[in-house]
Amino acid sequence: MQATIFHNPRCSTSPRVPGRLQESGSEFRVIEYLKTPPDRAMLTVPGEMSDVEVRGILRTEEAPASSLNLNAPEVSDEMLLDAMTGHPQLINRPIVVTDRRTLLCRPAERVEELLFFD
């Protein structure tokens, strides 16, 4: 399996995912998403290839989320995407992207779902 991991090395969960992929023999590249944010297209993976909705990858506890009022239920996916692309610290992590599926790996053990995905 080839994968891309959108990762933050300062996160307690994110650093465990590359280790598990390496153990499995998977090829992967790591992108520190705070330095190189994912684009809007990556954040809007088709539903059948992703386990979460746009709101599901929003880090609601980050300061910009409350100051931008992003936790309000009437905030659209488009507004959330604008906020996340402008403030990548709002993106939950780690997100692992393969050619067959995209998964938010919280907890880190969720990466196992990608390793055994049919």
Summarize the helix and strand pattern as letters. Answer: EHEHHHEEH
CATH architecture call: 3-Layer(aba) Sandwich
Low-confidence sequence ranges = none
The largest β sheet comes out as: 4 strands, mixed
Structural class: alpha+beta
* Rounded radius of gyration (Å): 14 Å
Tell me what portion of residues adopts beta-strand conformation: 15-25%
Taken from the alpha-carbon principal axes, the silhouette is globular
CATH topology: Glutaredoxin
Number of helices in the DSSP assignment? 5
Mean pLDDT: 87
The CATH superfamily is Glutaredoxin
What is the domain tally? 1
Tally of strands = 4
- Which percent bin holds the helix content? 25-40%
**Biggest β-sheet: strands ordered side by side in the sheet:** 2-1-3-4
Distance between the termini: 12 Å
Mind telling me the CATH class?
Answer: Alpha Beta
Task: Describe this protein's structure.
- The chain has a single domain, classed as Glutaredoxin (3-Layer(aba) Sandwich), CATH 3.40.30.10.
- With 118 residues, the protein is an alpha+beta fold.
- 28% of the residues lie in helices and 15% in strands.
- Strand 1, helix 1 and strand 2 form a beta-alpha-beta unit.
- The termini are close together.
- The chain contains 5 helices and 4 strands, in the order E-H-E-H-H-H-E-E-H.
- The protein has a 4-stranded mixed sheet, with helices on one face.
